[in-house]
């Protein structure tokens, strides 16, 4: 049901957002997620790719409008059907 879909997760670098990103990748979803720290992005991507999943991490601080604008612009370059979850 989820295989081949694309998910955009905010807060995917740690905690529940990271767990959701990993779970969705295991289900065959291509995951785009954002996090405030580059090391958190690397950790989540490493977990997902080590299990054969596909993920792309984006550096983004959702409290900064310009950062959010850049993140959304990067996401608009894709055309796959997207499912959506948000975690702050």
From TrEMBL:
Enzyme class: oxidoreductase
The enzyme's E.C. designation: 1.2.1.-
Gene3D superfamilies registered for this protein in UniProt: NAD(P)-binding Rossmann-like Domain
InterPro entries per record: NAD(P)-bd_dom_sf, SDR_fam
Keyword Oxidoreductase: yes
GO molecular function: oxidoreductase activity
Keywords: Oxidoreductase
Protein name, entry field: Putative deoxygluconate dehydrogenase
Organism taxonomic ancestry: Bacteria, Pseudomonadati, Pseudomonadota, Gammaproteobacteria, Enterobacterales
Gene (UniProt): acr1_2
């Amino acid at each position: 049901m989820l295989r081949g879909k694309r998910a955009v997760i905010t807060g995917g670098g740690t905690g529940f957002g990271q767990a959701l990103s990993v779970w969705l990748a295991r289900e065959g979803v291509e995951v785009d997620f954002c996090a405030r720290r580059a090391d958190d992005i690397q950790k989540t991507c490493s977990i997902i790719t080590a299990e054969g999943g596909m993920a792309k991490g984006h550096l983004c601080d959702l409290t900064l409008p310009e950062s959010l604008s850049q993140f959304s612009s990067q996401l608009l370059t894709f055309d796959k059907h997207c499912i959506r979850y948000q975690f702050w």
